Amino acid sequence: MSSYERFAQVYDELQIDIPYSSYVDWVMRHAPSKQFSNLLDIGCGTGVLGLMLANAGYKVSGVDLSEEMLAIAAERFADVGLHVPLYCMSMHELDGFVNFDVISIAIDSLNYVVEEADVYATLKHIYEALRDGGQLFFDVHSLFKMDDIFLDGPFTYDDGDISYVWHTEPGDFDHSVVHQMTFYVRDAASDLYERFDEEHVQRTFPIEQYIIWLRTIGFTDVEVTADFTDEAPEYESERIFIRAVK
């Protein structure tokens, strides 16, 4: 198994509890594919959500910083006969995109942008890439999840084929963490486990800060909900969903 195939296997396993269908439903309710067909999936990863959006009728393009993730996404789309344009770039350096109906940054991908200026630049580039009336959909970790839940670790997982130990420590910024993960992946041929390590830094901001950035850039009709519901966030909400209209 190549390195990108190994990591993609682990990545998809980490996301197994994510209700991707609820994310698709959220987008479809506010921007149905018949009226908002052209969609850019930023932080598209291995293409799981992108494929679901394509099956819902959207014309999908994808952006991710990882060439390895994009390689798996390309295979996933090709396996079902779809041609989906994929681009390797940082979201805060987004360039060359115009007239999109919908742009999504799903499953806390924006939390990997830790500098305030880069978060603002990401949202600004997205505004410029949307058509008038286009919509932005994204979700981020709440302050509660970043400051309390993540620091309650370590977290462990073992299904016989993949095992991991996940330690999280406070990061250098307010409301930031460093995830340190050790994986053991079983090779079916040898029945031996291969170890590899990953380190990821994430940061979130108060909801009010995201709203200020969005309104300063020019977005309107900013709507905030929590945890795959239509309800407003509460103190112990874990995932914050934000929709904004250009």
From TrEMBL:
Stored InterPro entries: Methyltransf_25 (IPR041698), SAM-dependent_MTases_sf (IPR029063)
Coiled-coil regions, chain positions: none
Domain Methyltransferase: 40-134
Domain of life: Bacteria
Pfam families, per database record: Methyltransf_25 (PF13649)
GO molecular function, one term: methyltransferase activity
SUPFAM superfamilies to which the protein is assigned, alphabetical: S-adenosyl-L-methionine-dependent methyltransferases
GO biological process, one term: methylation
Alphabetic keyword roster: Methyltransferase, Transferase
Signal peptide range in chain numbering: none
Protein name stated in the entry: SAM-dependent methyltransferase
Protein source organism: Lysinibacillus parviboronicapiens
